[in-house]
């Protein structure tokens, strides 16, 4: 290619920088034209019953632990029967490693905490986009309650809680083992690595530019309007410039809210509304129950003023589907050994999502 050639972002390969994690993604838009003979996922349609007597999460049913769910009518929060982290376990001390070389290469930290399951609805067949808006508001309120209550337990009762990672894995393609609408919250005595990367990037950006990274990024996106999918009074949804997953999105608060604990009633409803619209667009994209992993990033529990100044509430949505309801993106080969790579630009993905209905779910038209 000569220096005078026109660079085409929709056809020429290039890298994009992710300031949140100080990393790069390779963009190869021309690869979207290649034929696909690989694995195809089953098409997920809304065919589940309203109640499943064999479901561990439906009201009144016994879970694997033997505990019986109450006959709940809204959201339900309970401690995970198979938690990834536990409160009661022996402490690990660094002094156990006397060899300096072993300390250098085999660093280990003790992690304590608790894990929770949050059922979004008693109805087995209603995912977030299919829930009435008031029910999605209840989910947001449950997220806030978890954050506030666990912060109090840490402060008043000495529980070793530092950070709560609230997330949802939707669909079997994302490893979800139960289709009942639910999310999880893992509360740990440490800050997770991905969140810690963001905090370091936020602090570095403020030091270098005397501003907040996400505040400035949102201002730029709202000015350019090439990657904005949805917007309301309190939040904006963008396909981030550095997105890795095909239809990845970032939900960011417009005002500086360090955590969900700072939300007022209006902001809670605005978050519920924009999440419902976004997930409806996802389902409408390929007319399937669209799989994704989604999570909230915010300030640590009982954050210092400095941590509150640095943190900025946002949500990541990582959906794997690439070309259709049956073809997904795999992070393998170069993506694992080199760096992440995507086959369509963020702008192309945003346009696809913008053009979709966010108010009427495709299943309502069947």
Automatic annotation (TrEMBL):
<dbReference type="InterPro" id="IPR001937">
    <property type="entry name" value="GalP_UDPtransf1"/>
</dbReference>
<feature type="binding site" description="in other chain">
    <location>
        <begin position="175"/>
        <end position="177"/>
    </location>
    <ligand>
        <name>UDP-alpha-D-glucose</name>
    </ligand>
</feature>
<keyword id="KW-0548">Nucleotidyltransferase</keyword>
<feature type="binding site" description="in other chain">
    <location>
        <position position="184"/>
    </location>
    <ligand>
        <name>UDP-alpha-D-glucose</name>
    </ligand>
</feature>
<feature type="domain" description="Galactose-1-phosphate uridyl transferase N-terminal">
    <location>
        <begin position="7"/>
        <end position="192"/>
    </location>
</feature>
<feature type="binding site">
    <location>
        <position position="316"/>
    </location>
    <ligand>
        <name>Fe cation</name>
    </ligand>
</feature>
<keyword id="KW-0119">Carbohydrate metabolism</keyword>
<dbReference type="GO" id="GO:0005737">
    <property type="term" value="C:cytoplasm"/>
</dbReference>
<dbReference type="GO" id="GO:0008270">
    <property type="term" value="F:zinc ion binding"/>
</dbReference>
<dbReference type="Pfam" id="PF02744">
    <property type="entry name" value="GalP_UDP_tr_C"/>
</dbReference>
<feature type="binding site">
    <location>
        <begin position="334"/>
        <end position="335"/>
    </location>
    <ligand>
        <name>UDP-alpha-D-glucose</name>
    </ligand>
</feature>
<dbReference type="Pfam" id="PF01087">
    <property type="entry name" value="GalP_UDP_transf"/>
</dbReference>
<feature type="binding site">
    <location>
        <position position="297"/>
    </location>
    <ligand>
        <name>Fe cation</name>
    </ligand>
</feature>
<feature type="binding site" description="in other chain">
    <location>
        <position position="64"/>
    </location>
    <ligand>
        <name>UDP-alpha-D-glucose</name>
    </ligand>
</feature>
<keyword id="KW-0862">Zinc</keyword>
<feature type="binding site">
    <location>
        <position position="55"/>
    </location>
    <ligand>
        <name>Zn(2+)</name>
    </ligand>
</feature>
<comment type="pathway">
    <text>Carbohydrate metabolism; galactose metabolism.</text>
</comment>
<dbReference type="GO" id="GO:0008108">
    <property type="term" value="F:UDP-glucose:hexose-1-phosphate uridylyltransferase activity"/>
</dbReference>
<keyword id="KW-0408">Iron</keyword>
<feature type="binding site" description="in other chain">
    <location>
        <position position="169"/>
    </location>
    <ligand>
        <name>UDP-alpha-D-glucose</name>
    </ligand>
</feature>
<feature type="active site" description="Tele-UMP-histidine intermediate">
    <location>
        <position position="182"/>
    </location>
</feature>
<feature type="binding site" description="in other chain">
    <location>
        <position position="341"/>
    </location>
    <ligand>
        <name>UDP-alpha-D-glucose</name>
    </ligand>
</feature>
<feature type="binding site">
    <location>
        <position position="180"/>
    </location>
    <ligand>
        <name>Zn(2+)</name>
    </ligand>
</feature>
<dbReference type="InterPro" id="IPR036265">
    <property type="entry name" value="HIT-like_sf"/>
</dbReference>
<keyword id="KW-0479">Metal-binding</keyword>
<comment type="similarity">
    <text>Belongs to the galactose-1-phosphate uridylyltransferase type 1 family.</text>
</comment>
<feature type="binding site" description="in other chain">
    <location>
        <begin position="80"/>
        <end position="81"/>
    </location>
    <ligand>
        <name>UDP-alpha-D-glucose</name>
    </ligand>
</feature>
<protein>
    <recommendedName>
        <fullName>Galactose-1-phosphate uridylyltransferase</fullName>
        <ecNumber>2.7.7.12</ecNumber>
    </recommendedName>
</protein>
<feature type="binding site">
    <location>
        <position position="198"/>
    </location>
    <ligand>
        <name>Fe cation</name>
    </ligand>
</feature>
<feature type="domain" description="Galactose-1-phosphate uridyl transferase C-terminal">
    <location>
        <begin position="198"/>
        <end position="365"/>
    </location>
</feature>
<dbReference type="InterPro" id="IPR019779">
    <property type="entry name" value="GalP_UDPtransf1_His-AS"/>
</dbReference>
<feature type="binding site">
    <location>
        <position position="314"/>
    </location>
    <ligand>
        <name>Fe cation</name>
    </ligand>
</feature>
<dbReference type="GO" id="GO:0033499">
    <property type="term" value="P:galactose catabolic process via UDP-galactose, Leloir pathway"/>
</dbReference>
<dbReference type="InterPro" id="IPR005849">
    <property type="entry name" value="GalP_Utransf_N"/>
</dbReference>
<keyword id="KW-0299">Galactose metabolism</keyword>
<feature type="binding site">
    <location>
        <position position="124"/>
    </location>
    <ligand>
        <name>Zn(2+)</name>
    </ligand>
</feature>
<feature type="binding site">
    <location>
        <begin position="31"/>
        <end position="34"/>
    </location>
    <ligand>
        <name>UDP-alpha-D-glucose</name>
    </ligand>
</feature>
<feature type="binding site">
    <location>
        <position position="58"/>
    </location>
    <ligand>
        <name>Zn(2+)</name>
    </ligand>
</feature>
<keyword id="KW-0808">Transferase</keyword>
<feature type="binding site">
    <location>
        <begin position="329"/>
        <end position="330"/>
    </location>
    <ligand>
        <name>UDP-alpha-D-glucose</name>
    </ligand>
</feature>
<dbReference type="InterPro" id="IPR005850">
    <property type="entry name" value="GalP_Utransf_C"/>
</dbReference>
């Amino acid at each position: 290619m000569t220096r005078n050639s026109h660079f085409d972002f929709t056809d020429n390969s290039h890298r994009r920088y992710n300031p949140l994690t100080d990393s790069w993604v390779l963009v190869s838009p021309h690869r979207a034209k290649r034929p696909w003979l690989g694995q195809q996922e089953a098409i997920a349609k809304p065919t589940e019953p309203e109640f499943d007597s064999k479901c561990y999460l439906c009201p009144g049913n016994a879970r694997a632990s033997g505990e019986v769910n109450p006959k709940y009518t809204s959201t339900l929060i309970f401690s995970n029967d198979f938690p990834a982290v536990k409160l009661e376990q022996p402490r690990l001390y660094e002094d156990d490693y006397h060899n300096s070389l072993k300390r250098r290469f085999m660093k280990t930290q003790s992690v304590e905490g608790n894990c929770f399951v949050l059922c979004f609805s008693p109805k087995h067949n209603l995912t977030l986009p299919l829930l009435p808006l008031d029910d999605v508001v209840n989910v947001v309120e449950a997220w806030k309650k978890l954050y506030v209550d666990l912060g109090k337990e840490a402060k008043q009762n000495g529980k070793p809680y530092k950070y709560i990672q609230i997330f949802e894995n939707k669909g079997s393609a994302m490893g979800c083992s139960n289709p009942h609408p639910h999310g999880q919250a893992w509360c740990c005595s440490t800050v997770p690595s991905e969140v810690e990367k963001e905090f370091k990037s936020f602090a570095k950006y403020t030091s270098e530019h005397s501003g907040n990274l996400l505040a400035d990024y949102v201002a730029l996106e709202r000015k350019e309007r090439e990657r904005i999918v949805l917007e309301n009074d309190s939040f904006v949804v963008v396909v981030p410039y550095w997105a890795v997953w095909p239809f990845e999105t970032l939900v960011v608060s417009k005002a500086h809210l360090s955590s969900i604990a700072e939300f007022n009633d209006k902001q809670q409803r605005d978050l519920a509304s924009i999440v419902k619209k976004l997930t409806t667009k996802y389902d409408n994209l390929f007319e399937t129950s669209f799989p994704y992993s989604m999570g909230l990033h915010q300030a640590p529990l009982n954050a210092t003023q400095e941590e509150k100044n640095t943190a900025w509430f946002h949500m990541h949505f990582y959906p794997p589907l690439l070309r259709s309801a049956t073809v997904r993106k795999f992070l393998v080969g170069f993506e694992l050994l080199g760096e992440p790579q995507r086959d369509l630009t963020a702008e192309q993905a945003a346009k696809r999502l913008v053009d979709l209905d966010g108010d009427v779910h495709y299943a309502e038209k069947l």
